[in-house]
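Annex B.
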Amino acid sequence: MHALPQPAPSRAGLALAGKRALVTGGGSGIGLACARALSGAGAEVTVLGRREGPLRTAVAAGAARDAIIADIAGALPTLPACDILLHAAGAAESAPFLESDDALWQRMLSVNLLGAAAAMRAVLPGMLAAGEGRIVAIASTAALKGYAYVTAYAAAKHGLLGLVRALAQEVAGKGVTVNAICPGFAETPMTEESIARITAKTGRGEAEARAALARHNPQGRLVRPEEVAAAALFLCLPEAAAVNGAAIPVAGGEV
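SDR family oxidoreductase: predicted structure tokens.
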């Protein structure tokens, strides 16, 4: 007996079928994991980022249907209408406070705070007109506590969380929710860059530097991007309509 070919699974029964999602920083790390999760739930995903190669790879792998090449810290092009904005673009630089010059501060604020505000400002009118929408910002445990040698980054992430909480109050009752996910150190290219900086400045080996970051997590490990994406996906579901202005740590109990 020969098995009959099975039809391709329908997306109609998926939780986010028919929803349009825009993921900034969607070419790698947490952004890519979020794009995969949203696409897997049925959303039509567009990824946005600076590097064309990773974005095209994400599209080719089925994590997204389209890509926009743009720098979130610069002038954004006209963004497509969307039901979901997942803002995962970010960058971290470390230096002692007295060695953090104006240029470093401007880079951290532009990428981690002002870029988020620009993206939210671009898509929010459409969400309000539709009477529904989800905005999820990937912040950091550095939005909830201080870390030495990353004052500019921590200040920008604290600002991002303030933006989320304030905007959530403005849109409450209008069908739109605004929330933040606050991951600890995760298995991402940005963490790899941090490890490289630690080894370069201290002479410690890569394994030792990685272990030093993992010790911030009471579970003794780095967070997986898929764990962050699972929390972000929940916030985009209809069942999360009452969650607004939240800051959800995904950090193994660090905060």
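The radius of gyration is 19 Å. The CA atoms of residues 161 and 232 lie 15 Å apart. Further annotation is deferred to the next reporting cycle.
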